[in-house]
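call fold target=DNA-directed RNA polymerase
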Amino acid sequence: VKDLLKKCVIVAGEDRLSKQANENATLLFQCLVRSTLCTKFVSEDYRLSTEAFEWLIGEIETRFQQAQVNPGEMVGALAAQSLGEPATQMTLNTFHFAGVSSKNVTLGVPRLKEIINISKKPKAPSLTVFLTGGAARDAEKAKNVLCRLEHTTLRKVTANTAIYYDPDPQNTVIAEDQEFVNVYYEMPDFDPTKISPWLLRIELDRK
């Protein structure tokens, strides 16, 4: 990693001013690389082999060199182009799938609007699920999980329900929920005195 960061130079030069300028320009990049590729993450979480780690280092160096621009480059136009071209292509692809029921047509500009505006009700909501156990390696088992997830009601994931009379919501009668309640009422967006003292507690099945 040290050798990689030495090769990542933005301001060339051996004088003191150039070295200081390069250090300031690459400081955040160095922090990101060192924190992401620390020994613990590489060996325990990522489980990279020597060949995989060397390939990753080479890929980072290549991408870094490709990302550099000349002084005075019109980066605004490049940024607009890099966003506009894929959006246009996504919109064109949408028209091809307009009559196909199995295709997702919420792409292009409408999808970008949902992302930028942080839409609370996306037209085509999606969920990425990482499987464990046998389903992670067996396509048939993974498909069975998909079929079960497509239609899941609250009843299926609920472990227990109970109704409590809680006269003081900020000091709940449920001791194990007190910490959660304290965090919730730190910045309330409503008047706590106007809510009902009756409480419906739903405990989800974490399995």
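return ok
The mean pLDDT is 84. The beta strands are 158-165, 198-204.
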